[in-house]
Amino acid sequence: MIADNGEQLGIMPAKEALKRAEQKNLDLVKIAPNANPPVCKIMDYGKYRFEQSKREKEAKKNQRIVETKEIRLSVNIDTHDFDTKVNHALKFLQAGNKVKVSIRFRGREMAHAHLGNGIMERFAVACEENGTVEKPAKLEGRQMLMFLSPKSAK
User: Fold this and answer.
1) Cβ pair 147, 99 in contact under 8 A
2) How far is CA 152 from CA 59, 145, 149, in A?
3) Contact at 8 Å (CB) between 75 and 116?
4) Residue 67 and residue 98 in contact, taking contact as beta carbons nearer than 8 Å
5) Are 67 and 95 contacting, i.e. CB atoms less than 8 angstroms apart?
6) How far is it, in rounded angstroms, from Cα 3 to Cα 17?
7) CA triplet 75, 151, 90: central angle to 5 degrees?
8) 14 with 33: CB under 8 angstroms?
């Protein structure tokens, strides 16, 4: 048993502990209910819950949620279209988001997966100042995927 001011009260019956809590207008809270005997604490539970929710809100406020943005390319992409896609990816990486680059192979394009590898390598080289390759290009079914993550700010 632990009191609200931190002093240890020792082992006592639950009724006596509850009586002491009521005398102080506080709550008897089980800290370790599975222990033998169970460990309880005399405290203001409402105040404790309020402070805990305040801490959680503060932690949530300082949290940065990283989104994954997707960029789709094709095997026969033109240079200007490729540059536009690279610029979009650079904006996403500068904003701190991860980028998923995908190429979907249609019909007979599956026979030329090596062309997709070349495009992915070009894309990775074009984005290397703002991002690093998290997962290299890999063919999964009819899609080739590569993941880029932003470089950490120094």
Assistant:
1) yes
2) 21, 22, 9
3) yes
4) yes
5) no
6) 9
7) 45
8) no
